[in-house]
Amino acid sequence: MLTIGGAQALSLKAKLFFGFSDPSRLSILEALRAGPLTVTEIVERTGLSQSNVSNHLGCLRDCGLVSRRQQGRYVHYQLSDERVTALLRLTDEVLADVAKGVYDCIRYNLPDGG
């Protein structure tokens, strides 16, 4: 485990949350909450293209949020740590309480321009 503090810690936290902020990556993480999936299954569940899913899985693996396991001819991807699942669940809980404020916030735009 890397131990850091101060501005460097804040910068790394911001970088972590930036990874969660991309709608495609977040869609993949949400799909993987149900358990391990192949790229084909992720494509079916998210509606993203195969190349887009593969690209984002590479990013998520590099960041340590997703791991892969070879099973015969298939590669299954899964969330690498139960705390990622917990963070996604906690985000749902917080958003349930503050959704209107987040939606109305003029300082952050939704990916669709809202």
Features:
globular, 11% strand, mainly alpha, two-stranded antiparallel ribbon, 114 residues, 5 helices
SSE arrangement:
Blueprint: H1 6-21, H2 23-32, H3 39-46, H4 50-62, E1 66-71, E2 74-79, H5 82-104
Antiparallel strand pairs: 1-2
Short characterization:
With 114 residues, the chain is mostly helical. It has helices at 6-21, 23-32, 39-46, 50-62, 82-104, and strands at residues 66-71, 74-79.
Describe the protein's architecture and organization.
- The protein has one domain (10-104): Orthogonal Bundle (Arc Repressor Mutant, subunit A).
- The chain has 5 helices and 2 strands, in the order ααααββα.
- It has helices at 6-21, 23-32, 39-46, 50-62, 82-104, and strands spanning 66-71, 74-79.
- A hairpin with a 2-residue loop joins strand 1 and strand 2.
- 13% of the residues are buried.
- The model has no long low-confidence stretch (mean pLDDT 91).
Number of strands: 2
Separation of the first and last Cα atoms: 38 Å
The rounded Rg comes to 16 Å
CATH architecture: Orthogonal Bundle
Number of helices: 5
Structural class: mainly alpha
Instruction: Work out the strand percent.
Output: 5-15%
Specify the CATH homologous superfamily. Answer: Winged helix-like DNA-binding domain superfamily/Winged helix DNA-binding domain
In helices, the fraction of residues equals: 55-70%
**Under CATH, the topology is which?**
Arc Repressor Mutant, subunit A
Order of helices and strands: HHHHEEH
What are the low-pLDDT stretches, counting only 5+ consecutive residues below 50? none
Please outline the major beta sheet. Answer: 2 strands, antiparallel
Number of domains: 1
- CATH class type: Mainly Alpha
Overall 3D shape: globular
Strand adjacency order, main sheet: 1-2
Mean pLDDT: 91
